[in-house]
């Protein structure tokens, strides 16, 4: 199999370009609904049970946050891999690496540092300090405050375990971009071996240094599709959308039922069963979303307000965590007398965060466009 650059189309198909913009935004919004989950235990894994009573609100939160919406990271990695491979040959790899250091590495360091400063400020006021403690998202549990950390731990908090923990995606993406020539060879020369190994790493959630198995699979899938110049707009002949949508809904519903009804002791077979359901839901959801929602894509991208909002996908991404975690704690603490406060917070707070993120992004882009360009890696500079 040749490894020299392949001849790819000079321009993306117009509708494909629209779909990529649509899903780049929608996946960011779905991230908030996953990270805004407010039941106990808060930390979601495929096999996380629910310690709260089953009801319409708790059921809805779980099936969304730990079921139907979990395809959002795979689709983002696939889009990133597709675009990176599609632009192959536009510049030497060394130049592309320098650009990615500016568009991925620098924003990672800056936003991690800015959130450390924001955390320090929040810790100066009793109300917000308590929200930081209650959120329990520091990797140095039970120590949740910056004032409790050593200098070395503060550096780790900045460089490796950022407060906006979703930045791991930028870190992994940067590693994949840097190692693209070697990934490309493996994907093109031994695709069966590569995807078998990457698939196992994804399925069993095997942690790898600096990257995630999930990205190793789906970034490579995007690369493979681009380099083969595959038709990614037409559903494959074997794909039947209605049965696949039924499978997606079914496995997520079954996993949700298990999370509420299967109590301790929590066995390994049970965890593996929930993991399998989770992964089937993730893959089937990605296919249904990509091939089955074209009508929604066209409707949204025909609206000027939605196209404007797509320019702030990155701002939504970098601002939503830990903002959603601390705001959730404040809402639950001071709104506990409000009926259905957990469900209302889960449904409405993400929309508020989208509005705040887009508003701050628009203000910063207008007032300080150069600063905005640095913080976003040049993303979203267009106004439409």
UniProtKB/TrEMBL annotation:
Residue ranges annotated as coiled coil are none
Q: How does it sit in the membrane?
A: Multi-pass membrane protein
- A single Gene Ontology molecular function, please? acyltransferase activity
What class does this enzyme belong to in the EC scheme?
transferase
Database matches in InterPro entries: Acyl_transf_3_dom
UniProt key word DNA-binding: no
Q: What is this protein called?
A: Acyltransferase
């Amino acid at each position: 199999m040749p490894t020299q650059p392949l001849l790819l189309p000079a321009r993306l198909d117009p509708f494909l370009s629209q779909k990529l913009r649509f899903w780049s935004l929608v996946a960011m919004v779905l991230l908030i609904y996953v990270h805004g989950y407010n039941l106990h235990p808060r930390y979601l894994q495929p096999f996380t049970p629910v310690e709260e009573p089953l009801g319409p609100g708790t059921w809805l939160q779980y099936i969304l946050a730990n079921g139907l919406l979990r395809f959002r990271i795979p689709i983002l990695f696939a889009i990133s891999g597709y675009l990176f491979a599609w632009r192959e040959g536009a510049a030497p790899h060394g130049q592309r690496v320098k650009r990615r250091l500016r568009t991925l590495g620098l924003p990672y360091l800056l936003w991690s540092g800015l959130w450390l400063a924001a955390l320090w400020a929040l810790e100066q006021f009793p109300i917000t300090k308590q929200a930081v403690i209650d959120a329990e998202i520091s990797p140095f549990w039970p120590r949740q405050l910056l004032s409790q950390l050593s200098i070395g731990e503060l550096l780790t908090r900045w460089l490796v375990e950022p407060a906006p923990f979703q930045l791991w995606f930028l870190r992994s993406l940067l590693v994949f971009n840097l190692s693209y020539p070697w990934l490309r060879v493996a994907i093109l020369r031994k695709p069966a071996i590569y995807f078998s190994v990457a698939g196992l790493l994804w399925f069993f959630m095997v942690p790898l240094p600096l990257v995630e198995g999930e990205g190793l699979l789906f970034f490579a899938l995007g690369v493979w599709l681009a380099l083969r110049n595959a038709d990614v707009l037409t559903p494959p002949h074997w794909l039947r959308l209605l049965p696949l949508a039924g499978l997606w809904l079914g496995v997520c519903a079954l996993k949700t039922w298990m999370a509420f009804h299967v109590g301790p002791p929590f066995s390994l077979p049970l965890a593996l069963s929930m993991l399998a359901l989770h992964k089937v839901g993730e893959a089937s959801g990605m296919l249904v979303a990509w091939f089955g929602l074209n009508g929604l894509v066209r409707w949204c991208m025909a609206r000027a307000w939605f196209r404007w909002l797509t320019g702030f996908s990155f701002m939504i991404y970098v601002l939503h965590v830990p903002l959603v975690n601390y705001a959730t704690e404040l809402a639950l603490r001071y709104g506990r007398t409000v009926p259905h406060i957990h469900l209302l917070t889960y449904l409405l707070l993400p929309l508020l965060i989208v509005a705040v993120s887009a508003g701050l992004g628009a203000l910063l882009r207008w007032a300080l466009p150069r600063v905005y360009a640095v913080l976003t890696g040049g993303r979203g500079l267009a106004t439409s």
